[in-house]
Design brief:
The complex is a heterodimer of chains A (260) and B (334). Chain A contains 6 helices and 15 strands. Chain A has a single domain (2-214), classed as 3-Layer(aba) Sandwich (Rossmann fold), CATH 3.40.50. In chain A, 27% of the residues lie in helices and 30% in strands. By secondary structure, chain A is of the alpha/beta class. Chain B has helices at residues 22-38, 56-60, 79-93, 104-116, 230-239, 248-252, 283-289, 306-309, 318-328; strands at 9-13, 15-16, 19-20, 42-48, 65-70, 97-101, 121-125, 127-130, 137-143, 148-153, 160-164, 182-184, 196-203, 216-220, 243-246, 273-277, 294-299, 312-315. Classes of the chains: A alpha/beta (260), B alpha/beta (334). Strand 11 (162-169) of chain A pairs antiparallel with strand 13 of chain B, so a sheet runs across the interface.
């Protein structure tokens, strides 16, 4: 069984703080991590590897620094790692990103492709389904339980108001939720292997078959017209009084606003 | 691509068990407004097994025409039959703009359809406008955990597609005199389209309220101290005819469930009253509630960032303030 796991290196947005004066993000010193939903996808692949002797390949598209995320995946137990990096890929929207990743995946043997549901920096949840579309594969999103029997997967998928228990045949693509599992830690031996024994293979523009018109910013149907920080709202009144007074102030305000 | 061939706004009308989801009505209202600006029509696409709802309401909210695809494979959501049907309608009718709710279904389906149509898709839009010069749709969405807003355009491809967050588009201008126009559409499905098999559908119980529909939310943060304190918040909620929601930290701790989570990775809410109890105010949380009409925050920590967003800030112990408040609040009318 061959599994390809798509991961993204993201800034840890939980560590991002706001500048209270300007309302802008303070990005300095924010650590980069493997996107949490993707890490759950990697763990799911590694569990399948433990049980069925699968081969796990991690794939990322990003700047050369994304090597670190791939090494972490190797140290957790992935077998191969591929870094898709080229200036030509830069500025891609989700359409161009999925075209590029799909072109890379066509070069790899796979039965199952796993992607995290969404990345915490962009939150689009689009790249997984778009890869599946480009490869003409069935997809199941929001996987919270996963099992395998022969060439079929048995999946529980979570929606807002219901769960679907699903059977589907590989090859296919699934997107995983961070709730799926607790990703394992890197082992010391794993870290040694990741830097000494295992390789990160780098693929550039020349290594994949794709139309130039589908690449990077130029190939992207969408454009960011502008980005801005939200206007900093003037804070309301603050009271530091005893409980009974505080309760009365709240009551008066709710009456004033016609909430009660 | 001849962009001028594309006109009208198409809204994907989401149904569960044959009932129309509220988000679709919100999107029809917004679609009506955009169609008016563009001088075009607002149409809907409903994929369904058995209709189990009054479809007239969609027209009252502003729909001009509803395309209905009826097929046995369209009851429970499956990606491929849905993607095939929506793509079929897009190719046949060439809409200029397509809206999907940013729900589990919309966020699974829209990327698939946009990719098949080789056009762009903007995720999780929270505001929409039409550029006066170019007539391009300007789709604004939060990014980077919710603090940066980005306005996205899709200038050279059609349709312009976006998913839109439930609960952010206001429902306005209902007109019950508007007439229904329903057009049945045949889509050539094959057995191969049902490429997954749904073995079982497990519905969550009815006790799970939809927090985006509540007009008052009493919201718990880690600062409440423990799951036993949720009863106190529940008492306040029942006094104010509201519901209990929470921050992500409280969901992660297992005190509340995911359906109650407000924020960037949870639900966007804008109730009349948002009562933040022991919530510090991470930007991901603020992104999900800052549009609320009136925000009250109680926190022991006077430096909590939630106080920068709140309309009324109480520095203090919620375990002391909330019982006092419950005591003096009038009993609600039955």
């Amino acid at each position: 069984m061959n599994i390809v796991v798509c991961i993204k290196q993201v800034p840890d947005t939980n560590e991002v703080k706001l500048d209270p004066k300007t309302g802008t993000l303070i990005r300095d010193g924010v650590p980069s991590i493997i996107n949490p939903d993707d890490k759950a996808g990697l763990e799911a692949a590694l569990v399948l590897k433990d049980r069925f002797d699968a081969k796990v390949t991690v794939l990322t598209m990003g700047p050369p620094q994304a090597d670190k995320a791939l090494r972490e995946a190797l140290a957790m137990g992935a077998d191969d790692a591929i870094l898709l990096t080229d200036r030509a890929f830069a500025g891609a929207d989700t359409w161009a990103t999925s075209m590029t990743l799909a072109a890379a995946i066509r070069k790899i043997d796979y039965d199952l492709i796993i992607a995290g549901r969404q990345a915490i920096d962009g939150d689009t949840a689009q790249v997984g389904p778009q890869i599946a579309e480009k490869l003409e594969l069935p997809q199941v999103s929001y996987v919270k339980e996963l099992d395998r029997d022969g060439d079929h997967l048995f999946i529980t998928r979570e929606f807002e108001d219901r769960m679907h228990k699903i059977k589907l045949k590989m090859p296919c693509l699934i997107t995983t939720l961070a709730e799926l599992n607790e990703p394992r830690y890197m082992s010391v031996a794993g870290i040694m292997d990741a830097y000494r024994e295992k390789e990160v293979t780098t693929w550039t523009r020349a290594d994949i078959v794709i139309d130039d018109a589908a690449l990077g910013l130029k190939g992207s149907p969408t454009r960011v017209k502008k980005s801005f920080t939200k206007a900093v709202k003037a804070p309301g009144k603050k009271y530091d009084v005893d409980a009974a007074q505080a309760a009365q102030i709240i009551l008066d305000n709710l009456k004033e606003k016609y909430i009660i | 691509m001849n962009i001028s061939e594309y006109k009208d706004v198409l809204v994907f009308i989401e149904q569960r068990d044959g009932k129309i989801e509220k988000v679709s009505k919100e999107l029809v209202c917004k679609g009506r407004e955009i169609a008016n600006t563009l001088g075009s029509k607002c149409k809907g696409a409903l994929l369904i097994d058995e209709v189990n709802d009054d479809l007239n309401e969609l027209f009252h909210w502003g729909l001009d025409e509803l395309y209905v695809v009826k097929h046995k494979s369209l009851g429970e959501f499956m990606t491929e039959p849905y993607a095939k049907a929506v793509t079929h309608i897009c190719k046949e009718h060439k809409p200029e703009v397509v809206f999907f709710g940013a729900t589990s279904i919309g966020r699974d389906l829209a990327p698939r359809v946009s990719s098949r149509m080789d056009t762009g898709l903007t995720a999780d839009c929270t505001s929409l406008a039409v550029d006066e010069e170019t007539n391009n749709l300007m789709m604004t969405r939060p990014a980077f955990g919710g603090n940066i807003m980005a306005t996205i355009i899709c200038p050279e491809h059609r349709p312009q597609m976006t998913t839109i967050r439930p609960g952010v588009m206001a429902m306005l201008n209902k007109d019950e005199s508007r007439k229904a126009l329903i057009t049945e559409v045949e889509v050539p499905f094959t057995n191969a389209d049902s490429n997954i098999e749904i073995l079982e559908v497990v519905k969550h119980g009815h006790e799970q309220v939809k927090i985006e529909d509540a007009s008052v939310l009493i919201s718990a943060g880690r600062g409440i101290g423990g799951p036993d304190k949720l009863n106190l918040l529940g008492d306040l909620a029942s006094k104010l005819n509201g519901e209990v929601s929470s921050s992500r930290a409280v969901v992660d701790a297992g005190w509340t469930n995911k359906a109650q989570q407000v924020g960037q990775t949870g639900t966007t809410v804008r109730p009349d009253l948002y009562f933040a109890c022991g919530i510090s105010g991470a930007i991901q949380h603020l992104a999900g509630m800052e549009e609320s009409e009136f925000i009250v925050a109680i926190n022991k920590d006077e430096t909590a960032p939630i106080f920068d967003t709140a309309d009324l800030s109480i520095v203090g112990d919620l375990n002391a303030v909330i019982p006092e408040l419950i005591k003096i609040l009038p009993n609600r009318e039955k």
